[in-house]
Amino acid sequence: MRMILKTLFIILVLVNICAADIIYLNSGEEYDGRLLSIENGIIEFELFSGELLDLNKDDVNKIQIEETPETASIKDLNDTLIFNLWKRSRDEEIESDIPYINLYEEVEYTINPVDFTWYKRTRKVQKILNDVGIGISNKVFYFLSNDENVKLNFARVIDEEGMVEYIRESAIKDEAINYDIPEYDNLHRKKIALRGTGIGSVIDYEIVHYYPRISLTSPFFVHEYFRENEPLKKKVVKVRLPSGWEFKYSVRNWEYDSPYFYIDTAKVTVYIDDIDYSDNLKPDQPIRTVKVKRDGIEKRNRKSSEGLIEYDIYNLVVVNQDRIEDEPFIPPKLYFCPSVIGGFDGGKGFGEYYKSILDSIIYTNDIKDLLNVILKNKADTLLEIYNYVIKEIKFKDVNIPDYSYTPKSLSQIFKNKSGNYLGKPFFLYGLYKYLDIPVELVFIQSRNTPVDMVYRNPLIGPSGDQVTSIDGRIGWFYLTLRQFSEVILRIRTEESIIYLAPFEDRIPFGVIPQEYQQVGGLRINEYGREPILIPGSPVEEEGEKRTLKAILDIEGNLRINETLELSGTDAIQFRRYKDLNDEEIYNFVEEMVHEIHPNAIVENFAFPILDDLKIPVYFNFNYRIDNYALKAGDDYMLLDLPGVNYSAYEVGREGKSYQFFIKKFGQYKKSVQIVLPAGYEVYYKPDAIEYRSDLADYRAKIDVRRNPYIDEVSNERGELNIVIFEDTFELKRRQGTAEDYQKYRDCITKKAGLTGKSIVLIRE
């Protein structure tokens, strides 16, 4: 022990290093931090949290010191790129109202044709501009632990004086994302934390993703955006492929050109802009903002060789991209960012992949017994098997790209009684295949999947139309499985085609949630694959209907019976409340009536049965609002329409820079009937409202009718006035151009115009 400590002390004296140290105690504990000193048998150790430990040397088992490069000056680095970027960023005047700026990014894809391994190398240089920007000193990189690896080549911080500090090894952490789901724990992330960052600091790092093979389930796939949340000075994408390999790609520039721009010529170098930001440019030399055009793109052949391998290099460069502004209804970057996507022929290998799936379907005796039990005395085979799978096989919320494109076996899924976005559909698929039901797997991607993780497939554009290349072909020549995140089933019956999404136990048979509607899907079978469009529900089958029947008494108190009917995706979302206990249900109902009025008091309710998917979601509840109407003397009362508290807050911004994108569409109806107290009639009511467009409609009207009644006490006949309010809001589609936002804004503004408008009653 003394020899170890003595050796460490000598090392510390002779070598000036920035150490990332680990100290191991005899008790089994270990700490990461920095060794400060060893004197008089006491070891002083600083944790990364700043806490100091004074440890007796007899309590220490060993100390491990990881050496990292010395702190140096940028002038000592043999790196012209970072020196020029750092120097120029000091000389330029950059707006500081943004957290940081991306000075430079270079992404390089390279294939080794000898063993078919490939890698993606990313270098990024960023400058911190204010306190908020310091947060970028923490970086996260995702990878699949059994199929790829991530290596940090370097990471360093250069301050305004040009001093360089490298990352410490102990500031790099590898951790699992789905550690709480062992059977689907494959997605990992590598986290790094840089020290010494501050306003004016430049961060420079290089990370490499290694992939062990090229296959259908681990494809070589290029997808890069030329846009960031903060300004981007320059980005370079290089694709280095062995000569003779046929590579297909397309360059898209949503804002400046037609929505879909394909370049079919593969073996060329494409320069969107020639300016090299890393060069020593004169301060007065302009930097051009370049727009992709159909014609005039410069094409150059460029080759390099490493050993006996000769490479063709495809080079794409963009400069001076503005930041993405934060605004309402901003769509995924896919819809408005310049980007490049590419790969190899997407038609190869799908037949073999499908065959491998079929080969993995083995029916154990337990599974055969299960089918016999389910089918015994059951008339609707499709429905009964579906209901079993969604209720008895627990859903694990792990997308395919976060685990694997190879499904677990039927016996594994049945044994674990669980499955993810591939496992549950695959299990249902296997049960249907056993009964010779004509079922197919369809790979899709939810609209809610972050497009930074996996690329939304290029079949469907922002308007829902099929995307074609210049010569009219559907642009699927670089199609890969990596473009998809979920699997649904497609069944052809004699009457129709049924799509099933057997994920969570609240999705009824034959109902597809909106996030899977009107998206491109990939239907696979023994012949290969076929792109298809998942159909959408009619507008009237999505949304809600609210019916309020109210009685107003002579004192202005209001008693309300309300019925809520939900359909489509809204019904699916409501079914998540099925596991609430009685107290939670009451609190939930109370929140609902408080949205009508803060003084509303729940009287009773009949909460719907949500476990039985055959029963529609139909919720009835009663509440009262005391002193709801404002009395003015003995002759007048003023009241607002209950539940008509619409807001235009979400469309407060007059215009939009990007395309229009909202989460869902549907039809929302409201009907309010208020029985007035005897002797009162309507003196004033708001006018009818109507707004129509191809995106959204809103219609509202208020009528008054007289209904006969018999007084229960005096047995006298009379008439009561009833106020009837009806409105309908229809959102016909979820996305559109920036100009469509104005239609939505006009519609919502018209709708909100009813809020606060009172009905005036007068005594007859």
Write the layout of secondary structure elements.
Layout: H1 2-14, E1 20-25, E2 30-39, E3 42-47, E4 52-56, E5 60-66, E6 72-73, H2 80-91, E7 100-112, E8 117-128, E9 138-144, E10 149-158, E11 163-166, E12 172-176, E13 187-193, E14 202-211, E15 221-225, E16 232-242, E17 248-252, E18 269-271, E19 298-300, E20 303-306, E21 309-321, E22 339-343, H3 350-359, H4 365-375, H5 381-392, E23 394-395, H6 410-416, E24 418-419, H7 423-434, E25 439-444, E26 486-492, E27 497-500, E28 520-525, E29 528-533, E30 543-552, E31 558-567, H8 568-574, H9 582-596, E32 601-606, E33 617-625, E34 630-632, E35 636-639, E36 660-661, E37 666-675, E38 680-684, E39 689-691, E40 696-710, E41 717-731, E42 735-736, H10 740-752, E43 759-763
Parallel strand pairs: 7-16, 23-24, 30-37
Antiparallel strand pairs: 1-2, 1-5, 2-3, 3-4, 6-11, 7-8, 8-14, 9-13, 10-11, 10-14, 12-13, 15-22, 16-21, 17-22, 18-19, 20-21, 25-26, 25-28, 26-27, 28-29, 30-31, 31-33, 32-33, 34-35, 35-43, 36-42, 37-41, 38-43, 39-40, 40-41
